Amino acid sequence: MAEPHPALLMFIGARYVEQRVADALAAAGYDDLTPAMARVAARLSEDGIRVTDLAEQARITKQSASVLVDQLERAAYVERVLDPADARARLVLIAPRGREAQRLARREERAIEREWTRHLGAERMAALRSALADLREITDPWR
């Protein structure tokens, strides 16, 4: 293949962001957060989410998601609470330590976006964002 598939190019960019964010988190003392834990934590919502839904969105088994949530909980990034809609179920919520890590991650993501905008120019960056948002309509079942 002469040119890489667009999906590979997106993956390379996503992995770059993931590594930059991980490095920033580690430098700030969040060095116990593994890439697998971070990928699961990235799917947490303000209202909480069930482990089964985390597993589905992360495309991992429920057992793997449970292990990762256990690790996140032991490290104080998340907490589990009763689901008000179903007393038999529990929701995973982001804890204060997780929220601080999340703020740092978002700050690093914004810095990367500014760098990419300087490199591509505002017009091309806007076009990239628009094209990726349009693709999300057909690629992201959780949009």
Automatic annotation (TrEMBL):
Looking at the UniProt entry, the stretches that span the membrane are none
What SUPFAM superfamilies does the record tag this protein with?
Answer: Winged helix' DNA-binding domain (SSF46785)
Residue ranges annotated for the HTH marR-type domain, each copy included? 1-137
Q: Which SMART domains match?
A: HTH_MARR
> Which Pfam families does this one have?
MarR_2
**The protein's name:** MarR family winged helix-turn-helix transcriptional regulator
Q: Which organism is it from?
A: Nocardioides humi
